[in-house]
Design a protein that fits this description.
single chain; about 70% helix
Length: about 150
């Protein structure tokens, strides 16, 4: 069970973040926070992209945190997890968010044109607050798990 913790903790953090994301979507149904039709949520009920909180950030932060707590922050494995988490979170905010915004613009342009061009699926990234909340969920899940196992 000891080594399974490195898989279980990030998966639990991911599941909590995804569940929270769906609560935010339901709460904010009047405001459009995910630019996908409701059918996308039926097809991918546990994996909508973008939105509050970031499940990507929760997952990589949970892994990084449990590794740091169990192996020490001076371990090479922690260093790898830290760098991986930084890349994932940077990508979510800078690259994926920008491409999602570009997708929204493309859809707006296509809606004004009389064309048979297929409408692309938009994969949204995250805002900085969404990543921060996701990272906090991951750190909290890992820390609570670590202390419960002692």
């Amino acid at each position: 069970m000891s080594n399974l913790i490195y898989i279980i903790v990030p998966l639990v953090a991911w599941a909590i973040a995804q569940a929270a994301k769906h609560l935010f979507v339901r709460y904010n149904r009047g405001r459009k926070i995910i630019d996908q039709p409701d059918s996308a949520h039926v097809l991918m009920p546990f994996a909508p992209s973008g939105g509050m909180p970031s499940a990507h950030a929760a997952t990589v932060t949970a892994l990084m945190t449990i590794l740091g707590l169990k192996l020490g922050v001076d371990s090479p494995v922690f260093a790898v997890a830290l760098l991986m988490a930084a890349v994932v979170m940077y990508d979510a905010v800078m690259v994926r968010y920008s491409s999602g915004e570009q997708g929204v613009t493309i859809l707006a342009i296509l809606s004004h044109l009389k064309t048979s061009i297929a409408r692309p699926k938009i994969a949204k990234g995250h805002t900085i607050p969404e990543v921060i909340v996701g990272a906090a969920i991951g750190a909290l899940v890992a820390t609570m798990t670590f202390w419960m196992m002692k």
